Amino acid sequence: MLRFPTLLPTAALLIFSPVHPVIAQTSPTEQATAPSSGPGVDTAGMDRSVAPGNDFYTYANGTWLKDTEIPADRSTYGNGAMVAELTDRHVAELIQEAAKASAPAGSEQRKIGDYYASFMDTTAIDAAGLTPLKPTLDSIAAIHDHRDLARFLGSTLRADVDALNNTNFYTENLFGLWVAQDLDDPSQYSPFLLQGGLGMPDRSYYVDSSAAMVTIRSKYQEHVAAMLGLAGISDSASKAAAITGLETRIAEAHVSREASGDVKKGNNHWTRADFPARAPGLDWEAYFAAAGLSRPARFVVWQPSAVTGISALTASEPLETWKAYLTFHAIQSRAAVLPGPFVRESFAFFGPVLSGARKQRDRWKLAVAATNEAFGFAVGKLYTARYFPPADKARAEAMVANLIAAFRTRIDRLEWMAPATKKEAKAKLAVLKVGVGYPDAWPRYDDLEVVAGDAFGNAERARLYQLRRSLARLGRPVDRSEWVMTPQTVNAVNLPAMNAMNFPAAILQPPYFDSRRPLAMDYGAMGAIIGHEVSHSFDNQGALFDAKGRLHNWWTPEDFKHFETSAQQLVAQYDAYKPFPDLAVNGRQTLAENIADVAGLTASYDAYHRALQGKPAPTVAGFAGDQQFFVSFAQSWRGKSREPALRNRILTDGHAPPQYRALTVRNIDAWYRAFGVKQGEKLYLATADRVRVW
Ligand SMILES: [Zn+2]
Asked: Average model confidence (pLDDT) for the chain?
């Protein structure tokens, strides 16, 4: 729902799992440079020979665009990538310092350091061979009946999916668990069960008939056989055929990614007794007991048809096939902490075949990513202590307060929204919980044991710890201050059921935010981002969740109709953007995000003037306050794309390409005044054609 400015691939614990296949492509480069915008307007990156009214994006970014080459290992490059590279470098330094610090035993710093050092100790990992995995392989070999199978499957359940906030729908285990606020009764946590069980990222890899997918499938089967062979398992080729056959049947039971993203299709409550009745096959009692889910009376089953289909397969497919399947996944899911040959074979498939990455990332980068994943908030605590001073937090919180005040005024003035709906909108605004930088209370890692020299055991314990932490939420009051993104993530997220937002410290960096420069530039860049996210709480998506976070539509049909009508102009505006003679931006596909961009920029402009409190804005490099605001906005969208990547994005992304998001300014009257934009210039819109949704 909310991808800003880029979905930075968060470091996966399962380095080789397809959860984040892009990881290998986006390794931080050693020469990572800070974004070029320092504490002033980045005049060096502009092209002032271009009239702002003709091409505002090039006016703000033309020299940077001309002088910047996209690095060879990337398909796009710009602010998002640069800030992410810089942050990755900072995080790597902190983790490596922790490893050298010999901090007191049991301290978070020591655990971080030992986790990293153990992951790096490939000599110990190679020497241990498959010994650490032996108990698991023995348990699989000892499966004799369907009850044993269910028990083993239950023991693999982990808290590794998220249907609504971080929206991660992938797990290699048969099912994934997400413990979150119930969407009918947000005062309680519920266990959400999601489909899983595939070794490749999505059902389409198994069922699509395109030549590319057929090739990937046959390479996957070879990879499965190779992994089994490395582990000394007999009949690896025939077992690999059976395993991929089973996964194909699981994939056929899966619902599509698009359907999984529809919250109204996902909110299905099943009692414990519903499982054997509605999804016969799996011994559910044994499964839940082994998973630590004996107590909950009710579950949310996100993809009911998939759960039914997968459960049936546990009974209909031969037990020996299941045992081979479980053996392969036991090895695959732990490949990162197994000896070198497993690491290399995993990369050979998940790198070049699946993601296009040609070179495995250095071991230390994988170690940083794994440590960052296992101890996300402990690393975040170190990160914010060094890179996010209290003054920055105060400055960003003041921006949030001004933005919320700006929205309140705008909602009051809206003509198209019914009075009762306005009341609900303001109630929602009043309880909105906006987190800035880092959570109020840091999650602790007291019970997560790290053993120096035991990379395998550490990874197992870290994943179990995440599960136990999730299970412990059940039956407790809902904690709306809890964060779902670590502070060192360059991103932002709207948590619709929590009526909350997280703005991590890592996105509060230049060029989005910089406490050394005048407020105008922060509001133009970061303020517009905050406004974008806040507006999602009140738009057609936010309308599904009320002030308490209940899935309950609080808009009237008339509200929806008016919203649609005012949206029509925006659809036409974006349909007219044509980066290629044969391909235009799809105004309908990008509508919700374009509305949020207009709303965010509009509200941030109001908030900026509120922040000035009637005082004149300082001039910087000859630019007046409002000019700084809009230039900073357009510079925040700075980026370049290779043609295939841009085409792909236009076809698949809900957001317009960055160069067009920068042109949101056309809808704001103040932009015309700031730059003297006149009729006849290319970006000029008559007053009636400027879109005002909020
Ligand atoms: Zn958005």
From this structure: 91
